[in-house]
Specification:
Elements lengths: L1 H25 L10 H28 L28 H17 L2 H30 L1 H9 L10 H4 L7 H30 L2 H30 L10
Helix pairs in contact: 1-4, 2-3, 2-7, 3-4, 3-7, 4-5, 7-8
Amino acid sequence: MITIGNFLFRFRNQLFPAIIIVLFLLAPPPALVLDSPALTLAKDLAAVLVILAGLILRATVVGYKYIQRGGLKKKVYAKDLVTEGMFGVCRNPLYVGNMLLYSGVFLLHGNPLLVVFGIGLFAFMYQCIVFAEEAFLDRTFGEAYQAYCRDVPRWALRMRNFAQSTEGMSFNVKRVIGKDYSTVSAAMIAILATEMYKFASNAPVEHNTRVLAALGVLMALVGIGTAILSYMKRRGAFRERAAS
């Protein structure tokens, strides 16, 4: 699993979206849940809430303490052992947030087999990545990392640690926007694309055009907003001031 994790860590940005696209193409979304519009709406609302929970968790993590998850030359790497902020609540809070995002997208699709298989597959892949990271951190930081593992769970959120692990820290909204706007954009595009797929697969042809056009306009607006934020970031709008 560590070997698999190192491979997934290197290619996850390309591989994970491709896996979702392939799974969606193999299993078209159902029109309704148990032939009930009310159940279908409730399922979709639950999916959006799960996605929102993932975004809020990621924002909380980044707002208190940001760490670079890209590694070094696409390999697992860490210069320091980060234990404050949300990393004092959970050892992998960003990955928990990501799992909520992916779970919400699969739930929004709605095919029961795809929901179970997709969530299970991504949970396995993230577990492999975590094992690879843990092996590196244990080699690098030794007893300090082992003590951290004894106090902070791998996946659960131990919220009683929150006050202590964020003591003296302030929430940085600017950093959240600058570092995580692309994740919010990707989540919104995933929601809109999934809805477009559902309508295109199940709605009568005469109903498709108007709904698909509206969803397409929304997706274009998300793209424009993302481009504006990207431009602002390049211009230094979200750059943090160096400590004096």
